[in-house]
Specification:
It is built from one helix and no strands. It is mostly helical and 76 residues long.
């Protein structure tokens, strides 16, 4: 039993030291600054696509609480 505890402690120590040394780095990260001019104005969002839309004929509704729909009052 004591051997297992010692092995687990050594393994934990090894993993901790390995993780900490792997996270530290002496290299300085090169970062390029990007400068953009910002102006007030409306956003123009355009989406172009070819083809056609196909809407589903049925939709499965899911709610957080269980229950049964007794009546749907909709006219076609």
């Amino acid at each position: 039993m004591q051997n297992r505890i010692i092995i687990v402690m050594l393994l934990t120590l090894f993993l901790t030291v390995t993780g900490l040394t792997g996270c530290s780095s002496n290299e300085v990260e090169d970062s390029e600054e990007q400068v953009f001019e910002v102006k007030r104005g409306d956003l123009l969002i355009a989406v172009s696509a070819d083809g056609s839309l196909v809407m589903p004929l049925e939709v499965e509704l899911r709610f957080g609480t269980p229950g049964t729909v007794m009546e749907i009052m909709v006219e076609k």
